Amino acid sequence: MWGRVGAGTPTRANEQDTTLLYYIIKVLLTPIFFVVWRIRVKGRKNVPRHGPGVIASNHVSFMESMFVPATLRRRVTYVAKAEYFESWRTRWFFAGSGQIPLERTGGSASEAAIAAAESVLDKGHLFGIYPEGTRSPDGRLYRGKTGVARIALQTGAPLIPVGVIGTDKVLPAGKKFPRLGKRVEIIFGEPIDVDKYRRWPDEYRAARALTDELMYEIRELTGQVYVDEYAKKPGKRRLDEDAETGESSGNQSASAA
What we know:
Layout: H1 15-37, E1 40-42, E2 53-57, H2 64-70, E3 76-81, H3 88-96, E4 99-102, H4 109-122, E5 126-129, E6 141-142, H5 147-155, E7 159-165, H6 167-170, E8 185-188, H7 195-198, H8 203-222, E9 226-227, H9 234-245, H10 249-256
């Protein structure tokens, strides 16, 4: 029932060169991260030493993409918009921080992301993903999207919930430079049993149930307040709130009239 997705693989940006750059940056920055932000790590033994694995964490700051890989000896690969790789000003950073370009043209972004994950996991590597789909707008934990479950179910890779605490204090939304001296804690939970969901006859219900279990485990690790709705980007959230309260510019004009 659970097979492989048929989408194409993501663009490759000289894989060997980016791997070398990744470890150069990792060696240089990891000691700085641990000293400046006093990173505390728990449950590292829950991440497999060899073979594929899906690293799924909460997302309250950009810094998760830096701190989580810094705590592991193995490389963690994320996906990023291909536009970030078009300019040399950003290409070196995204390639060096373990991210691969994701082409969104010619198909849905979700299918392209799953294909990218599959290509990483098929090589026996770790793939990092944020189940909420975007950064939390207010520090709470939002409903997970089922893409992460589909990846785990279709590849059979272990699904490891990760709770990150304190990164929103290091680099709050809207800030360009990280704050020094803030404490960060990263907790790797026990892998979730994916096989039991692979036996479900309804693939959508299986993916939804697995995602909900994952978000429950992340909430247990972080202590965040859970919101049973999808997170929205600040701009989108504001537009929706305006529409609900009747405070959009159009409605204001109508009221004034």
